[in-house]
Design brief:
The complex is a heterodimer of chains A (596) and B (139). Chain A has 596 residues and is an all-alpha fold. Chain A has helices at residues 11-16, 19-41, 43-58, 62-68, 70-86, 93-100, 103-135, 139-143, 145-165, 171-198, 220-234, 237-247, 253-280, 283-287, 292-301, 307-337, 356-376, 380-406, 408-413, 416-442, 448-451, 458-484, 489-516, 533-555, 581-586. In chain A, 73% of the residues lie in helices and 0% in strands. Chain B has a five-stranded parallel β-sheet with strand order 3-2-1-4-5, with helices on both faces. In chain B, α1 (13-29) links the parallel β1 and β2 (33-39). The chains are: A mainly alpha (596), B alpha/beta (139).
Chain lengths: 596, 139
Amino acid sequence: MESASAAEPAPTGAVASEGDKGLKGGALGFLSNVVIGVASTAPGYSLAAVLGFVAIEVGFQSPAILWLAFVPMLFISAAYYYMNRADPDCGTSFTWVTSTVGPRTGWLTGWAIIMADLFVMANLSQIAGLYTFLLVGWQSAADSVAAVTAVGVLWIAVMTWICVVGIELSARTQFFLLAAEVFALGLFSVVALIKVYFGNVAGSVDPSLSWFNPLDISSGSALAAGVILGIFIYWGWDSTVTVNEESENSSETPGRAAVLSTVILVVIYLVVAVAAQAYGGLGPLKQNPDDVLSALGGDVFGTPLDKILIIAVLTSASASTQTTILPTSRTALSMAFAKAIPDRFGHVHKRFQTPDTATIWFGVGSIIWYVGLTIISENILFDSIAALGLMIAFYYALTGFAAPIYYRRELFKSPAVMRTAGFGVLGGLALLGFGFFVSDVWSDQGNAWTALFDKASFANFIATVCAWVGTVGLIIGTAVAFIRSRSTKNLILVAAAGTVGGVVLTWAFFKSAIDLSDPANSESGDSWFGLGPPFVIGIGSLLVGVLLMLVRERTHPDFFRRKWKTAPPGSLDPATPTPVAGPSFAGDETAGGGPA
Amino acid sequence: MAGEIVVGYDGTECAEAALEVAIDVARDLGTKLVIVYAYDPARIGGEVHDLDEALEKRGREVTAEAVKRSEGAGLEVEVQLIKEKPSVALSALASKRKARFIVLGGYGERPVTGVILGATPHKLLHIAEVPVIVVPVRE
């Protein structure tokens, strides 16, 4: 039929690599990759939504949480990045977990992604509604739940429409918006810190290095809650890695862009957190957890300059809405394609080329969820973020574990020495994680680290043994892996990155779930069925997912009979060149394969 | 033979109108017709792999129809599925092939709507290096 299907590669690649245009294209690509990375994570909105709650959990240790929470994210993303490189066909978390761990787990992963996105929409629209009123200085409306909710609903509707018709801000526009956002946050920090050091601000506290020390966090529960909140603020960063992977031909640029966007993010978070708590101490953070930045911005800048910060949060929230709705509808599309959910969610709009049905369903669902939750519980913010953190931890942990599972054959067929090293690293990590978990959950000790050395109880004994054996195994395994081989190092790193990320997030998931089940720990203080609302929301929605999955399996069993996939032999050995980033996507096998 | 006609086609009614005109022009001039289906989902937001695949599949399906119609009109036809913004894809291909015309449909949206939705004809008129024929959709 077709005389030539995509025989010519997309002109992008060609244009970008031709002569002097190539340089320009590369430079732009680098910048826009960085911009996409930072904008997807939405630093302004994330800080506005979470900083106060983190302070409530860990006090002055917020900066410690902010860098600590990044570690599991980094590992999960690294695992993701390597898997994408080895198997560009792997697609999304859903596809990935489905083919490695199994269809049922995969189904639940997809469900958790959609639920997490649903939860964040409530929070996002609440912030958007609130800050809209704060921007125009209409305080009485900002104090009215009904008014804020109305604007929030409008916000969701508009954003859903934007995602359906496929409006995309150009890289240049995004660049300016992001630059303004970063500038506003930076200016806020600088002004606040100058006033702290040279001015006479009531209640200010001089920054201290101990703020960065996670060992000073008072309890394991606070640590877990902080990490769960922290995961939320880095959520979205992982998509950078995959976007980077496919958007550039150069093998250098994507990695460098990911690194730079990471550094920017972590620095912004740390600096703003330090400035915020130095300026007013913990009081303002704890009293206004739902609008920290506007409250502090007013003090630091005075009017009308404080509007800068509010605008920054609003633009950030709009970027975040897009990076929430788009992946959700695309995950739904993937699930529909795999016959995991009804076909209609896979519908693509003819003209706009977007998954319109899934997008609209998600928009409507978000509004119902947001309004429903607002009616039921006055204090939805913390409860929904905490539940959200559970969902993210759930699916990130599974995605992390998928890496070692996917590469298990490679790991086990390698030479005896490397096999031992692999076992050492992975087993060590698992044991270490288990040890921390046991010591933390089943011991009376408040602090996970001191608990390790307390042999008062049997649980602590087990924890100590696990931790020590795990540490020794980890050290020896890593050492052997690095010394003995270069070819398998990659493999061990992939598996280890996934396992570390998975273990940390699994721990955070269970620990946090147990803590959140106590109604006293919820922000609202409400008790649903004798349990905390965040726990009910998070675990409840997973259970609903299990139910829906069973129904689907009954009616459409095909998806659930899928076979597992493992890594093709040698896929991570350096001898086989890793697939070139861009073109391999443009012309994968179904496209008839252009000249790569 | 130089001077092919490049037509942007996505299966919408607007594309049908363009195809109709493109077939007429190609037949009158006795040249080859190149049917272009371009797609480019936003990279931001990630999770783009299956959508790309879905769009490519859609592209194959709708262009197959268009090929049938063009061949029915006795034309030599070629199909190009290009992963790129439609305006960029059309102009780049047309320049490279030294095409005679680019033909595409326009919804005739009012200017503001067109700007918001990023109307392809509007962009194409600015960047194309060959003449562009915009075919209006009749209500």
